[in-house]
Structure formats: C-alpha cells, structure tokens
Amino acid sequence: MNMFRNNFLSYNDPSSLILNVVENHERVFYSFSGDSVNGTVLCLFIAGNCNIVLWNPATNAIKYLPPSEVGLVKLSMPDEAENYVEFNADYYVHGFGYDYVINDYKVIRYVDVSVDSSSEYSEDWLEDLECDSFWEIYILRSNSWRKLHIDMPYSLQCNDGTQVYMDGVCHWLCEEDKPCLVSFYLSNEEFFVTPTPSDVDDCFDVKALWINLAVLNGFIALISYYKETTTFHISILGEIGTKESWTKLIIAGPLSCVERPIGVGMKGQIVFRRKDEELVWLDLRTQMIAELG
Known about the structure:
The protein is mainly beta.
C-alpha cells in the first residue's frame, strides 16, 4: 500500500489538465493521447441520443461522425409499413480511444434495436428483418462505422465517469449477472471481463451515491462516494481479468463539502467539484484538500 501512496504524488502546477464539464446534459468522453498523431489531443462529445462530435481543442476544429448503418434497416421497410411498424434504435457509446497498431482513433458503441408492429400488420419481410441489437466501431481515417460480431457485456446506463480509456483499451462498468469491469482492446477487438471483489461490489449498491472510473498513475481506479458517511473509496486494478488484483487504495473522508470528482490531473491528483461549485484537489498521500486558485 505504501508503494501506491508514494507514487500517487499530487502537484498543483500547469502540467495538470482540467476540463470543464459540458452543459445542457451532454455526455462527454475525454481521451488524452499526447504521444499519438504528433501530439494531437481529441475529445469526444455526445449530444442527445446519437449525435457524436470530435473536437480538437488545439485548432478548435470539430467533426460530426456519420450515422450508423442501422439506418439502412429502416430504409429497407416498404412505405405502406410506416403507419404500422415502429423502428427504434438507441445508441450507447462505451469507449473512445487510440489504436496504436493502426495509428488511428476509434469509437465503440452498442446499438439497441427494436421493431414493433401492430397486430393487424403482418408481412413475411417483417419476420425476416434483421433487427437484433449489436456492437459497432467507428474508425476516424475511413470515417465509417463497422459492425462488430461480438457477444460482449454492455451497459444501458452509460453515465458520466463510468467509462475510461488507457493505453489502447476502453474500460466500462457493467452489471450483467454481477458487477464487473469490461476491458475492450481497440487493436485486436477482443475483450476481458474483470469481476469486482466483495469489498468493491457495494459501490453498485444504493448506499453509494455514485461511482467513477479514472486513470491514476497508470492504473484503472474505481472511485465511489457514500452519502451516509461522506467518504470516498478508491480501489485500483492490478491486472485485467484477475478479480484478486483489485486493491483498496484508500478511504478518504469524511468529506462533506465535496460533491463529486470531475477529473484526474496528469500527476495523479484527483480534482473534485465542491458543493459551492468551487474546484478542489485531493492529495492521496496526505488526504488533504486544497483549493485550485
């Protein structure tokens, strides 16, 4: 434990990076890839259900991602079916990051598809219509989506902070049979599932107000906040796919003045938003909170 605490040193200097949270209930994924594409940093924004935007903060250039091929399914329906058949597709972005093998950015998302028809409408083509939910992946260079033939755990509760990217791997929290962490490798498009141990499982319980994933000093970290005790529980994952490698790093608190984390600095400090909307950072070594000037 001392090894981890000594390595998670906090610095309040210009090399730390803090981004503002997007307003209007837009969800945002951050990917910091300073050593790729000649140092280019791209951010991904999600507006509404399916609109995805890539933003380069250095040039302020933006790029809207094209629609999914799932729209072709709807276009294949005959005109007379419009009043009797309801086609729905909900999109859940699970990750955004950089593939170091092909030197390109990728986005992975789950498409939840459903087709409902009234009892008075029945046609043979409707029975043959392929409307199963599926995974798809976007590649920036080709500017196109590709369907993934993979049976992978997904989450329909893609809340802010429950996904994170590190070193070519997208991670997200998922509750299937039991709480777990799913890790998807962008290069070979394979995934691993890491169960959460009993002392981390309770972060999915109603006792925890919220949970966050973060990258701390090269480790995947799980941060949960408990409203009753106003404490933060921080655990880190030592090895993907190994349940026993979860380590409880620290229990910080009580910290009643802190609302929730909004990011992690490049030197390992955790940045929180206080209840009065001011920003503070937590030094894991001393468990002291300092204001950001």
